[in-house]
Amino acid sequence: MKLISLSLEETQKIGYNIGKKLRGGEVIFLSGILGAGKTELIRGIAKGLGVKSRITSPTFNILRVYRIPGNGNLYHFDCYRLKKYADLVELGWEEILADPDAIIVLEWPECILDGKITKLANNNAINVTIKIINSQRAIRVI
Protein backbone atom coordinates (compact mmCIF):
# COMPACT_ATOMS: atom_id res chain seq x y z
CA MET A 1 0.00 0.00 0.00
CA LYS A 2 1.36 3.44 -0.93
CA LEU A 3 0.05 6.57 0.76
CA ILE A 4 0.89 10.26 0.42
CA SER A 5 0.98 12.66 3.35
CA LEU A 6 1.02 16.42 2.92
CA SER A 7 1.31 17.30 6.62
CA LEU A 8 2.26 16.08 10.08
CA GLU A 9 -1.42 15.62 10.83
CA GLU A 10 -1.91 13.42 7.78
CA THR A 11 1.14 11.33 8.73
CA GLN A 12 -0.32 10.88 12.21
CA LYS A 13 -3.69 9.93 10.70
CA ILE A 14 -2.03 7.24 8.56
CA GLY A 15 -0.33 5.96 11.72
CA TYR A 16 -3.64 6.05 13.57
CA ASN A 17 -5.25 3.88 10.90
CA ILE A 18 -2.37 1.42 11.14
CA GLY A 19 -2.62 1.37 14.94
CA LYS A 20 -6.36 0.63 14.89
CA LYS A 21 -5.66 -2.60 12.97
CA LEU A 22 -2.93 -3.94 15.28
CA ARG A 23 -3.89 -6.73 17.68
CA GLY A 24 -0.60 -7.74 19.32
CA GLY A 25 2.41 -9.68 18.19
CA GLU A 26 3.19 -7.37 15.29
CA VAL A 27 6.64 -6.02 14.50
CA ILE A 28 6.87 -2.88 12.40
CA PHE A 29 10.21 -2.17 10.72
CA LEU A 30 10.20 1.58 10.04
CA SER A 31 12.71 3.20 7.69
CA GLY A 32 13.21 6.76 6.51
CA ILE A 33 15.82 9.50 6.62
CA LEU A 34 16.11 11.93 9.52
CA GLY A 35 13.09 14.22 9.51
CA ALA A 36 10.99 11.95 7.31
CA GLY A 37 8.18 11.72 9.87
CA LYS A 38 8.85 8.41 11.61
CA THR A 39 8.03 9.76 15.08
CA GLU A 40 4.85 11.41 13.78
CA LEU A 41 3.75 8.10 12.28
CA ILE A 42 4.43 6.36 15.61
CA ARG A 43 2.44 9.04 17.45
CA GLY A 44 -0.49 8.13 15.22
CA ILE A 45 0.03 4.40 15.75
CA ALA A 46 0.06 4.93 19.52
CA LYS A 47 -3.10 7.01 19.37
CA GLY A 48 -4.78 4.30 17.28
CA LEU A 49 -3.83 1.79 19.99
CA GLY A 50 -5.33 4.04 22.69
CA VAL A 51 -2.00 5.02 24.27
CA LYS A 52 -2.47 8.20 26.30
CA SER A 53 1.20 8.92 27.06
CA ARG A 54 3.17 11.59 25.23
CA ILE A 55 5.18 9.89 22.49
CA THR A 56 8.77 11.05 22.11
CA SER A 57 11.64 9.78 20.01
CA PRO A 58 13.86 7.23 21.77
CA THR A 59 16.96 8.45 19.91
CA PHE A 60 19.02 8.80 23.09
CA ASN A 61 17.25 6.15 25.18
CA ILE A 62 17.08 3.65 22.28
CA LEU A 63 13.88 2.14 23.74
CA ARG A 64 10.66 3.60 25.08
CA VAL A 65 7.75 1.53 26.36
CA TYR A 66 4.12 2.68 26.38
CA ARG A 67 1.22 0.87 28.01
CA ILE A 68 -1.64 -0.04 25.71
CA PRO A 69 -4.95 0.18 27.58
CA GLY A 70 -6.38 -3.25 28.24
CA ASN A 71 -3.41 -5.43 27.47
CA GLY A 72 0.14 -5.22 26.19
CA ASN A 73 2.80 -2.64 25.54
CA LEU A 74 3.99 -0.63 22.60
CA TYR A 75 7.79 -0.95 22.35
CA HIS A 76 9.45 1.81 20.34
CA PHE A 77 13.08 1.07 19.43
CA ASP A 78 15.46 3.46 17.67
CA CYS A 79 18.38 1.49 16.21
CA TYR A 80 20.20 4.47 14.70
CA ARG A 81 23.13 4.11 17.12
CA LEU A 82 23.11 0.30 17.18
CA LYS A 83 25.19 -1.84 14.85
CA LYS A 84 24.54 -5.48 15.69
CA TYR A 85 21.79 -7.82 16.76
CA ALA A 86 23.47 -8.39 20.13
CA ASP A 87 22.82 -4.73 20.96
CA LEU A 88 19.08 -5.39 20.67
CA VAL A 89 19.34 -8.60 22.70
CA GLU A 90 20.92 -6.62 25.55
CA LEU A 91 17.80 -4.44 25.58
CA GLY A 92 15.50 -7.46 26.02
CA TRP A 93 14.58 -7.83 22.34
CA GLU A 94 14.04 -11.59 22.40
CA GLU A 95 11.79 -11.48 25.48
CA ILE A 96 9.78 -8.61 24.02
CA LEU A 97 9.49 -10.41 20.68
CA ALA A 98 8.15 -13.51 22.46
CA ASP A 99 5.31 -11.53 24.13
CA PRO A 100 2.15 -12.19 22.05
CA ASP A 101 0.57 -8.93 23.27
CA ALA A 102 3.56 -6.73 22.44
CA ILE A 103 3.51 -4.38 19.49
CA ILE A 104 7.01 -3.43 18.41
CA VAL A 105 8.03 -0.50 16.23
CA LEU A 106 11.69 -0.61 15.29
CA GLU A 107 13.12 2.46 13.61
CA TRP A 108 16.28 2.18 11.49
CA PRO A 109 16.36 -1.64 11.15
CA GLU A 110 18.93 -1.17 8.39
CA CYS A 111 21.46 -0.07 11.03
CA ILE A 112 21.66 -3.62 12.38
CA LEU A 113 24.48 -4.50 10.01
CA ASP A 114 24.88 -8.21 10.75
CA GLY A 115 21.48 -8.95 9.19
CA LYS A 116 20.24 -11.14 12.03
CA ILE A 117 17.23 -8.93 12.60
CA THR A 118 15.64 -9.91 9.31
CA LYS A 119 15.46 -13.58 10.27
CA LEU A 120 13.12 -12.57 13.08
CA ALA A 121 10.55 -11.14 10.72
CA ASN A 122 7.55 -13.40 11.04
CA ASN A 123 4.11 -13.45 9.45
CA ASN A 124 3.17 -10.44 11.58
CA ALA A 125 6.04 -8.24 10.35
CA ILE A 126 5.10 -5.00 8.64
CA ASN A 127 7.65 -2.99 6.66
CA VAL A 128 7.04 0.76 6.46
CA THR A 129 9.21 3.16 4.50
CA ILE A 130 8.79 6.93 4.49
CA LYS A 131 10.39 8.96 1.69
CA ILE A 132 10.36 12.71 1.25
CA ILE A 133 9.37 13.72 -2.26
CA ASN A 134 9.27 17.50 -2.61
CA SER A 135 7.20 18.56 0.42
CA GLN A 136 5.24 15.30 0.53
CA ARG A 137 5.80 12.10 2.44
CA ALA A 138 5.42 8.90 0.46
CA ILE A 139 4.58 6.14 2.94
CA ARG A 140 4.83 2.56 1.77
CA VAL A 141 3.34 -0.17 3.95
CA ILE A 142 4.09 -3.81 3.11
How would you characterize this protein structure?
With 142 residues, this protein is of the alpha/beta class. The chain has a single domain, classed as P-loop containing nucleotide triphosphate hydrolases (Rossmann fold), CATH 3.40.50.300. Helix content is 27%, strand content 28%. The chain is built from four helices and seven strands; from the N terminus they run E-H-E-H-E-E-H-H-E-E-E. The protein has a seven-stranded mixed beta sheet, covered by helices on one side. Helix 1 (8-21) packs across helix 2. The chain is globular, with a radius of gyration of 14 Å. The model has no long low-confidence stretch (mean pLDDT 91).
Could you say which structural class the secondary elements and strand pairing correspond to? alpha/beta
CATH architecture: 3-Layer(aba) Sandwich
Mean pLDDT metric: 91
Helix content: 25-40%
Number of H- or I-type helical stretches = 4
Radius of gyration: 14 Å
Instruction: Report how far apart the termini are.
Output: 6 Å
Total count of domains: 1
Counted beta strands: 7
| Largest beta sheet: strand ordering | 1-7-6-2-5-4-3
What is the CATH level 1 assignment? Alpha Beta
**SSE sequence, one letter per element:** EHEHEEHHEEE
Name the CATH homologous superfamily. P-loop containing nucleotide triphosphate hydrolases
Shape summary: globular
Unreliable parts: none
As a percent range, the share of strand residues is 25-35%
At the third CATH level, what is the topology name?
Rossmann fold
Largest sheet descriptor: 7 strands, mixed
